[in-house]
Amino acid sequence: MRPMTPGPSLRSFPIAACLAATLGLATPSAAGTFALVVGNNHSLDAADKPLRFADDDAARYEELFKRFGAKTVLLAVLDVESQRLFPESAASARAPTRANLVSAIDALNREIEREGSDGRATTFVFVFVGHGSVSGGMGYVSLLDERFTRANLFRDVVSRSKATFNHVIIDACDSYFMVNSRGGGDERGPDHSARIAEYVLDEDLSRHPNTGVLLSTSKRQESHEWEGFQAGVFSHEVRSALLGAADVNEDGQVEYSEVAAFIQAANASLDDPRARTALFARAPALDLHRPVVDLSGGGRQFIALSGEVAGRFFLEDARGVRVGDFHKAIGNRLVLAPPPSPFYYLRGTDREAKLVFTADGTLRVSAGSFRSQSLAARGSLSEELDQRLFAVPYGRSFYDGFAAQMPGVPVRRPERPFPPPELALPPGVVSPLMSNPY
Q1: Do domains 8-294 and 301-386+424-432 have the same CATH topology?
Q2: Model confidence over 262-314: pLDDT tens digits?
Q3: β-strand 165-173 against 123-135: which pairing, if any?
Q4: How far is CA 316 from the centre of its chain?
Q5: How far apart are the first and last CA of the chain?
C-alpha cells in the first residue's frame, strides 16, 4: 500500500464517530499468520450505553481471518443470538479481561516464535471492537474488567510482538478522545485527521517500522453501529474491503492504499458528517506494499464478478449474515474470498443471484446470473446510510484519482490476475435466485 502520513493530504479523509487503529493485518503467506480479536459490548463508564454488535463484529473478524489461514484467539462474550449465528466462535471464546488478553498475547507469541524459527515471515493481527474514552489525557478502551490504554497498546501488544509484521484494528466508539482529550464542541465537528496523525506519532510508531495502521474516528455512538449491517459501520467497511472488494489491481492482495480508497469511495456521497467513517492509513515502513490480507491464504472458494457486472451489492451467507457491501464499477473484474458457506446471495437494489458452491473453486458471476427483484430495505439507522453509503462506484478509475492525491506508493500491476484459471468451476453453479427464503 501507500502509507497515509500526517499532513494536509489527510484532510481528504472525513472523520465521524469512532476510533479504529489497524496495526498490521496479514502476510502474503497464510502459514504464519496469527490474530487476536477482542470484542466487548460493555463500557466501564456508567454513562455509556452498551453496544449491540461488538460481539458480532469480533466473531466476524475471527471468521474472516480464519478464512485467510490465520491461527485465531477470540476474547468476547457473545449474546444468545450471536452464539446461534457463530457457534464455533462461541465455543472457543474467552472473556475479554486483562488477564485473558495478556495470556493470549503470550501464547500467540510463543507460537509465532516457533513458526518463524526457520526464517519464515510471520504476521500478528490485533483487533479490538468496543467502547473507548479518555482519562487524564490518556485514551483507553474498555475491557470487561479494566481499561486498556494507548500506552498498553504499544507497550503490551506492538512492542512485545514476535511477528515479522504487525497489523492492529481498533474500532471503538468514542475513541476520538484517544486523540483529543478536551472533548466538547460541535458533534458534527471538523476533520480530526491531523490529531490522529499526531497520536500515532506521539506514540512513536516510527520505532515500529514493521507495523501498519488504519485509524477511523467518530464522536457519536449512533453512527458507530447500524441495524442494516447488524455490525459497526467502520468494521463492516473494513471487512468488506478485506473480503476482496478493495483489490483494485486484481492481484489477490489487499494493500493499505486500497482499503483507504475503498472506504473513501464508500463514504463519498454521505452529506451528514456524523454518518461518515473517516480513515487514516499507514503501511509498515519496512514494506509499503505489505498487504493487509492475501486472498489466496486458507480457503479455496472464490466469487468472481465479470467486468460487465456493475452496481451496488451486498453479499449474504446461508445464515443470513451480511458479509460485505461494495459498489462495483463497470469494467473492473472483482474477486471475493468470503468465509466458508454452502451458498451465498448476491443482492442489489433490483436484482439478486444465488451462488451455490458445489466444490472448491471460483464461481463466475455475469450479468445473466441475476434475477430481477425489488429489495425491501431492512431495519436502517437512517435514510442517509441506507441510500448514500456505498453510492459511489469503486474501481480502477476512483483508485487512480485517490492515489494521485496521496503521498506514498500506489499498488503495482500484477503479472497475472487472481485467482488462477485452474480454480474455475464449471458453469451452472451460479443460478438466478428463484425464491427468497428470508
Answers
A1: no
A2: 999 998 887 776 667 777 788 999 999 999 999 988 888 899 999 999 999 99
A3: parallel
A4: 16
A5: 39
SS3 316: strand
In terms of Cα–Cα distance, which of 177, 77, 89, 92 is closest to 129?
77
State the Cα angle at 240 between 252 and 236, rounded to 5°.
155
C-alpha triplet 200, 65, 417: angle, nearest 5°: 95
Pairwise CA distance, residues 216 & 194, whole Å: 12
Which among 294, 257, 295 has a CA at the least distance from the CA of 279? Answer: 257
Q: What is the pLDDT of residues 64-85, one digit of tens each?
A: 999 999 999 999 999 999 999 9
Asked whether 203 and 159 are in contact (CB, 8 A), the reply is no
**Residue 9: per-residue pLDDT:** 30
pTM of this prediction? 0.81
Report the topology of domain 8-294: Rossmann fold (3.40.50)
Establish how many alpha carbons lie within 13 A of residue 103's alpha carbon, considering only the half-sphere containing its beta carbon.
10
Parallel, antiparallel or unpaired: strands 165-173 and 17-21: antiparallel
Please say whether the dihedral angle defined by the alpha carbons of residues 386, 389, 390 and 392, taken in this order, is positive or negative: positive
Q: Which three cell numbers stand for residue 16?
A: 465521524
Q: How confident is the model at residue 424 (pLDDT cuts 50, 70, 90)?
A: low
According to CATH, the topology of domain 301-386+424-432 is Immunoglobulin-like (2.60.40)
Q: Which residue has the cell 433490483?
A: 350
Query: What is the DSSP code string of 367-394?
Result: GGG-EE--------S-HHHHHHTT-S-B
Q: Where are the domains of the chain?
A: 8-294, 301-386+424-432
Cβ-based burial of 35 (10 A; exposed 0-12, middle 13-18, buried ≥19): buried
